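Materials and Methods. Structural model of Tetratricopeptide repeat protein. The 610-residue sequence of Tetratricopeptide repeat protein from Pseudohoeflea suaedae was retrieved and submitted for structure prediction as follows.
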Amino acid sequence: MQQKWIRQLVAGTALFAFALPFVPPSGLVSEASATEVADTKEAAADRPVEINSFSAAFLAAQTADADYDTRSAIEFYRRALDFDPTNDRIRERLMVDLFMAGDFDEGVAIVRELEGDPAINQVRDLAQVIDLMRDGEYETASDIPDVESTNPIDRLLNTLIKAWADAGAGKGEEAVKTLQALDGPPWYPVFTMFNAGAIAELDGDFSTARQIFQDAIVDKSIAGAAPDTFVRTVMALAALEARQGNVRAALDTLATGEDVVPNYAPLAAMRQRIEGGGPLPVEIENARDGAATALYSLGAAVNRDGAEETVMLYLQFARALDPTNAFALVTLGNLKEKLNQQAEAIELYKEIPEGSPMRRISELQLGLALSDMGDHEEAREHLKALIEEDPKDIRSYLAYGSVLSEDKAYKEMAENYEAALAAIGPAQSSNDWNLHFQLGIAYERLKEWPKAEKALKRALELQPNQPQVMNYLGYSWIDMNMNLDEGMDMIRAAVDLRPNDGYIVDSLGWAYYRLGQYEDAVRELERAVELKPADPTINDHLGDAYWRVGRKTEAGFQWNRSLINDPEADLKAEIEKKIADGLPEKSGELPAADNQSEKGGDAKTADDRS
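The predicted structure was written out as tokens:
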């Protein structure tokens, strides 16, 4: 996979770290336990799935669900229903998978046939509301959501959806009051105020909308709960001001968002359009669009490991209401990539409408997804074309550079980042540190150390105490047996800043190893393995350190553990040799005699292995 943090810089939306507690809505969890699913996956890996009984179909469906292979799960659940057509639990799970796959009409058809099972109330109710709102039956839709739910996220979402149904029914003023009166956790207002302001604006009450939006963005601290929704509020207010002819107020509003999320592409696109006097389309044109935005916002706010089903469901429901919602499409594409479903992600990126501020992001993500699929040449051509189309868009260079790094094309990588810096010119900001960092990596890999060192130092001038740069520069010095004290101080400082980053802790441990301080190396590398237990390089490093302190049995265990975690071919060959022969005797010099220098270079580039 590409370097994750490079991809986040490119994506823009992925930069946010969400703070909402995740409480899954009812009806989203498969029936099988985690142990049962694990056992089923192991069994499925050993033999082809034979669908000749209900249990075989059910277990195959559960396995597919565990792998987020929704399409296969749908087919297996259908096969299970062939054996047991009246099994409502299977029909319920088929319904959920259909929704997650984007097959809303087929899923809602099952909703109409199911009895009122409390276990799926939330999913069923949302589907019914969306179906009614798509048909314009807002009054009926308003009566369905359970606004008294004890699940705080369900209660919030249901209240937002009901408010938009009321707005569609011509009760906008009442809907605004309902949202303003909603009590709940301290993170509720970032959502309720955005939606209340949007409803007021849709209702034509611009003064009320302006006041609500202004109140919502006064306290930037609330942005931590849901930065995406906070920024959407900023954009909504800026667009309202611009359409009212208040250009200065609109630009000042955008500055508030830029303080919270620097270099966010949609904010930059809106600023450019306002400054150029271009038209600003209304994002929420009707109540359906508003409900879709509410679903997207909650989905984005709980988007984290373990919440994939919930996020996918919310985003697909948003698409059912507003198929061209660019924010939902990009976020859903990001999620598909995370689940290693690059082909589906690419199709979603292609759906982003021309002229959308998210279109450029989708094109960049598409290029990275092509690379992840192994289509590196097509990815390169796609990303190079984006650079030629807009040489001032630095994200294009970052995306292209990421693919070049993946290909180990370091000469082209260096040329790419030199071109990016030339495009910026001398007026560089602190946000440009990463270009110099990437340039330094390229030159270091080309063994042009003076150029690499200059670039890394420049990165630290622009962004002092940047832990990734400190880690890389400090380790490089130690690896070359120069500036040893300064290098160790720099790596220790990086660890202090990122104490839970297993890769940076690994660099500290490996630096101790390179200096022959093996007990210290063991201490730090054990901590690194705790943080990143499945990383083959870190396990290999710990094995070497164990060997040097005489813990040879444990060294063999760590080397074997590294092999289990699928190291690259060169590292695999080294480990197999060490398992057979052990390490050579110490030479009395720096442990470069162990032939570990190149491996240390891999260790210090933490994000190459993310």
